[in-house]
Every structure is written in C-alpha cells, then in structure tokens.
TrEMBL record, chain A:
Keywords assigned: Cell membrane, Membrane, Transmembrane, Transmembrane helix, Transport
GO MF term list: phosphate transmembrane transporter activity
Record-linked InterPro entries: MetI-like (IPR000515), MetI-like_sf (IPR035906), Phosphate_PstA (IPR005672)
Organism listed in the record: Nostoc edaphicum CCNP1411
The gene coding this protein: pstA
Principal location: membrane
Protein's UniProt name: Phosphate transport system permease protein PstA
Assigned protein family: Belongs to the binding-protein-dependent transport system permease family. CysTW subfamily.
GO cellular component, one term: plasma membrane
TrEMBL record, chain B:
Topology versus the membrane: Multi-pass membrane protein
Listed CDD domains: TM_PBP2
Subcellular location: Cell membrane; Membrane
Keyword Zinc: no
Organism: Nostoc edaphicum CCNP1411
Keywords: Cell membrane, Membrane, Phosphate transport, Transmembrane, Transmembrane helix, Transport
Molecular function as annotated in GO: phosphate transmembrane transporter activity
One Gene Ontology cellular component: plasma membrane
ABC transmembrane type-1 domain residues: 90-301
Protein name per Swiss-Prot or TrEMBL: Phosphate transport system permease protein
One annotated GO biological process: phosphate ion transport
PROSITE patterns: ABC_TM1
C-alpha cells in the first residue's frame, strides 16, 4: 500500500524524486570514504609496525657488534652474525635450486607441453602446491631430507625445503613472463630455420628475464622470511659459529622467534633489531631485482 | 596451452624434413626431456608430501584409535595422562581464522572496491602495491607486533590474557587482507563495463551500482578469494605460535590463550623428537588434518574461481 502511494507520488512531483537522488548520492559519498578508510587501515598498520619496530630496535641494531658478533645469553650483548650467514646461504641455495628447475618447468609448460590430461594435472597440481602451508613443507623436508637422505637437521635440509616451498611461485610467475613474449619473435626465429631450443634460449628467455626475475625475488624474499618450515626441519635459535651446508643452522626469522620467546625484557629490542636486519635484507634483494630489471628492459 | 607444441607445429614440420644434422635433433630432444623433468618435480613434491605424511599418520593410528583422535575433547599428548582429541586444536585454529577473516574480508573488499571503482589510475598504481606490501612482511614480524604492540594496547580496554586469540587473529587478518583484496579486485575489474553503464542508464547511483550490479556479478571471484584467505589463515604458523599461545582448549573466548594445529606442530618439532616416537607421529597426524583441510579449501576456491571465469570470457 505504502509503496504504490510513493510510486505515484514520485511520478507526480519531480521535486521529491530529485531529493531522493541527492540522499542516495550523499550516501554514496559516505561509502566512498568508508571504502577509502578500509583501504588505508592496512597501510596505516604497516606504517605503525615499521615505526614501532624502528623505535624498539634501532638503538640495539646500531650498537657495536650487533651484526658481527655471535649470539649471547645476555639480552644486550652479542649479535646475529650466524643468523645472517645462515639466511644468506639459505637464499643462495634456494636461488641455485629453484631458478633452473622453476624456469625449466615454466618453459616446458608454455612451449613444449601438449594439450593432454596429464599437463592439466601438472598445472592444477602446481597451483595447489602454492597453497600448501609452509609448515607442511617442513614435514616433507623432515621426512625426505633429514631422514630419507640422511642430512639430519642441517642447513642443506632447510635450504632444500625452502626451495620446494618457493618453486610453485617461480613457476607461475615465469610462465606469465614467458607467455608475454610476442609470438612474432618466435615466428621470426623459426622462419630463419632456427631450432626450437635455440629460439627459446636466444629469443624467448632473454625477453622474459625481467618478468622471471620479479618472480624469483618475490619467492626468495618469502623463503628468507619463512620460519615455520625451518622450525620443523630443525633450525636452532642459538649458534656460536657460522654454519656450513651440512651443519646445524639458524635463520633470521628463527633468531627473531627465539628472542621473542625469552622472558627477559631486553630480548624484545634484540628481536626488533633482528627484524630490522631481516627487512633490510629483503629490501636489498628487491633493490637488486629492480636494478637488474631496469637494465634488462632498456635494451 | 601455448601455440608451439612439437607435434602439431606447422613451422617446425618443414624444418625437420630439411634437417641435416641428426645430433642437433637429438640434443633438441634431450632439452625437451630435461624441461619435462623440471615440470615433474612439482608432481614428485606432491607425492612426497602425501606419502610421507600419510605413512607416519598410519603409524600414529596403529597406536591411537580413531575414536581417541576424533571423539576425545582433550589434547594432552605431552602430559603424563595422555589424550589425543584433535578438537581443541581445530577449535583454536578456526577461532583465530574466524577473527582473522572478520578483519580481512571487510578490509580486503573495501580495498578492492575503492581501487577498482573510485581511485584514479595513478592513485591506484601507488596504493595497490602499498597494500600488497602487507603480504611481503615475514609472518614472524606480525607475531612480534601482535604480542608486543597490539596485545598491550588492547589490554588497556579489554581484559585479555597475555597470549590470546584476538591479537593473533587481528594481525593475521591484516596479513591476509591483500590475498582477499587482490583476487577480489581482479574479479571486480573483469565485470564488463556494459553492466555498469546499463545500471547508470537506468538512473542508479554509483554506490547502488556497486552493491546491486558489480558485487553480485563478481560474487564467485570474491567467494574464491575469501576461501583462499581462510586457507591461508588455517595454515599460518608464526603469528599464532607467538601471540596466541600453546594451550589447547575448547573455547570461543577470544581473550584466552589457545593452541592451533600449526602452533602445536611447531612446538613439538624442532627436528629433536626421536623418529618413531609417538610424539613424532602426532606431528604428522596433526599435519595430515591440516593438509586435508587446506587442500580441500584450495580446491573449492580453485573450482569456484574457474566456474566464474567461464561466465564472461
């Protein structure tokens, strides 16, 4: 009853209808602000987080010996050198293992794979692997590298575990980079009678390098920041020497976790200082990537 | 998927007939085989996960019955009086996940709607990567922030235990916001312009177009992003381990310390539990439950996202 009355009324008098539009438009403005606030909350928290960590840890980070000493049982002494060395070693192994395998797999799926049920299976499988939690990769690493291959809780076990963890990301981003290479480039090469692999290695890969590098950096920074899988594989929170490939190992995130879980108050600022080191390492990696990407894309 | 497959490539057929050098042909085949082997690594990884997890889980269920695992309401494998009821861990996991998603869904959707419908392209080009930075911060850092900044802050207003699911969940939600946001953004962006223009032509305001036309059209993509976000939250370890504590209990109170499946796994492991011990096997039994839950969520999300793709392409 009420509706039909309103309908009639709005048709009869244009003025009331226009008022309604104003109201609806201003409600729209209100929601625009709400959406913007929702977007900015995340960025605000990120800024707050960085500010808090710099405030807590910058003093400790700049204190002499923090980057170059081995850890100490006392909160305001000692440093994080073994953790830094471990993290860099882990990152290097991850790069050496995942880049060839990941790019190889991407090349196969984009350039060679026939349309068949089993290539679809491989693709679905890769996207599922990207969603497997880090700690489950830890279980895999513990079973395969620690026990089956007999490495024990050594750096190499952790590094190979992280490699498997970052493989799906590298494959997915490399495929996108390879797919973006224009077909005219391949056709030109084939037209000159160049073989398939030589076409790929001399034309497709160089063209795709910037995109591939982006994927490599994203996944290596994830790997360096990952702690859950390394805890399962057996990373330790305290080490007084720089580890080799087959020794017990640390990692910056593990060092942070170990500092946070100690009750004495001074360890909180040591944790914050270690976080600064970890973020700087990740930032440096991204810086290198941006630099290389620009150099390659200027060609 | 791509144009060039060795079988049916029109450009390659004449070349092969002209081929003089057999060794070149062999080396081409070898390269193809090597690349194929690279692609197989992912399949082997999956087999590895399944075989290793379920082998140890099988061993676990030879010592602990299904009834003890699924019907008991206590999880105390480390105490003298052992109980192996998985529900307290699942309870903790889904409590933190629910809190995380009640943060990540609104923030992620607000980000996606603003970036797609309101922001100038130049502004969006700055804001989108800024939001996605949230996903690049190591999770242990969120744990630090939750325990040492957020919890003390919230304790001024709410009576919380030092370890509580609220701080951990909220931090996890912030961390998952880009997951929900990015995929929703892609879904919203792929709603055809003509649908919006049709709505405007009928005299509907921008806001009404968003809620009545754009969001319903993008719904399956948005749901897929939310399910993927849930899967991330279920599998996330460091934040809940640091900020939510290690006390498995059945509670819906966000103020208490709980334990999630992942936090228990991190606690029991360390490469130190002797292989073959029952503690070692609980690690894999809990891991199997976690794996099955996240895998099902990922498959559902993948399925929904794909169904939606067919609609507009």
């Amino acid at each position: 009853m009420a509706t039909s009355y309103q309908d009639d009324d709005s048709f009869a008098s244009g003025a009331e209808f226009t008022d309604n539009v104003d109201k609806r438009e201003s409600l729209g403005k209100v929601f625009e602000v709400i959406f913007l606030i929702g977007l900015l909350i995340g960025i605000f928290v990120l800024a707050l987080l960085l500010f808090d960590i710099l405030g807590d840890g910058l003093g400790r980070f700049l204190s002499p010996g923090f980057l170059t000493d081995t850890p100490s049982r006392f909160p305001d002494q000692g440093g994080i050198r073994p953790a830094i060395v471990s993290s860099i070693l882990l990152g290097l192994v991850v790069i050496f293992v995942t880049v060839p395998i990941g790019v190889g797999a991407a090349l196969y799926l984009e350039e060679y794979a026939p349309k068949a049920w089993w290539t679809v299976v491989i693709e679905i499988n890769i996207s599922n692997l990207a969603g497997v939690p880090s700690i489950v990769y830890g279980l895999l690493g513990l079973g395969v590298f620690n026990y089956l291959l007999g490495f024990g809780p050594a750096l190499i076990s952790g590094a190979l575990t992280l490699s498997l963890l970052s493989l799906p990301v590298i494959i997915v981003t490399s495929r996108e980079a390879i797919r973006a290479v224009p077909d005219s480039l391949r056709n030109a090469s084939y037209g000159l009678g160049v073989t398939k692999w030589k076409t790929i290695s001399s034309h497709v890969i160089p063209y795709a390098v910037p995109g591939i590098l982006t994927g490599v950096i994203i996944s290596v920074s994830r790997a360096i920041g990952d702690a859950a899988s390394l805890i399962v594989v057996g990373a330790v929170g305290f080490l007084t020497f720089d580890p080799g490939l087959f020794q017990r190992f640390m990692a910056l995130p593990i060092q942070i976790y170990s500092y946070i879980t100690r009750p004495e108050p001074g360890f909180a600022s040591a944790a914050a200082a270690t976080i600064i080191a970890l973020l700087l390492l990740i930032l440096a990696l991204n810086g290198v990537a941006i630099y290389i990407r620009q150099r390659f894309s200027i060609r | 998927m791509q144009n060039y497959t060795s079988q049916d490539d029109p450009y390659l057929l004449p070349r092969q007939s002209l081929d003089k050098d057999i060794s070149e042909d062999i080396s081409e085949r070898i390269v193809g085989a090597i690349l194929f082997a690279c692609a197989l690594v992912s399949v082997l990884t999956t087999f590895g996960i399944v075989i290793i997890i379920f082998q140890e889980t099988f061993g676990f269920f030879q010592e602990v019955s299904f009834a003890q695992f699924f019907l008991d309401t206590k999880w105390t494998p480390l105490f003298a009086e052992r109980h192996f009821g998985i529900w307290p861990l699942i309870n903790g996991t889904f409590l933190t996940t629910a809190i995380a998603m009640s943060v990540a869904i609104p923030l992620g959707l607000c980000s996606a709607i603003y970036l797609s419908e309101y922001a100038q392209p130049k502004v969006a080009a700055v804001l989108r990567p800024a939001v996605e930075l949230l996903a690049g911060v190591p999770t242990v850092v969120y744990g630090y922030f939750a325990l040492l900044f957020l919890t003390p802050l919230l304790r001024n207003f709410i009576p919380l235990e030092i370890f509580n699911s609220l701080s951990a969940g909220v931090m996890m939600g912030i961390m998952i916001t880009p997951t929900v946001g990015s995929i929703s953004l892609d879904a919203i962006k792929s709603v055809p312009r003509s649908l919006r223009e049709g709505a405007y032509a009928l005299g509907i305001t921008k806001l009404e177009t968003i809620f009545k036309v754009v969001l319903p059209a993008a719904l399956s993509g948005i749901i897929a992003s939310i399910i993927l976000g849930i899967s991330r939250a279920v599998g996330e370890t460091m934040t809940v381990l640091i900020a939510a504590g290690l006390q498995p209990k059945l509670t819906i109170s966000f103020a208490e310390s709980i334990a999630t499946m992942t936090a228990y796994m991190a606690q029991i492991s360390g490469g130190d539990s002797p292989r073959g011990s029952l503690n070692f096997k609980t690690l894999y039994a809990v891991g199997a439950v976690l794996f099955v839950i996240t895998l099902s969520l990922n498959i559902v999300s993948y399925w929904i996202a794909n169904r939606y793709k067919e609609k507009y392409e």
